[in-house]
Amino acid sequence: SWSIFEDRILYQLLVFLLPPSRHSFRLELFCGTRLPERCSSIRVVLECTCLRTTGDIPCFVHPSENNETAQHSPLLQTLCTGSYLDVEEIACWVQNSVQTAWERLPQWQHWQLTVLPSSHCCQLLLSGPSDMQLCAVLVFAVEQGSP
Asked: Fold for domain 2-29+37-46+71-142?
């Protein structure tokens, strides 16, 4: 959605997170309520790939002959707390990635990107040569029932 407020255009974008290969997301309810977005967590489940034809891709769950321990998941190490997606880690990672990418875009040299502090979404403010500002709010979601 989008709206205009005084000298600022606000864009709100819903960003669906998809699990990478060899992972799946599982919604776990804790309150017994019908409002899962308020009382739930998204658990990251590592999938066994031992019986699949995956070439040289190691299994996260089981050790291989060459490696006596199971492989570590970059997703679990980067965007999770324990085995659960951490929205604060996701927001921080996206903010850092956008900031790094912005610095490599020379065509935007007349625009300034400001990452606004937020622990549950990613808020970006673009200020340009005019008085108009663009604000983008990225809200993260996982589609219920997706693999």
From this structure: Beta Polymerase; domain 2 (3.30.460)
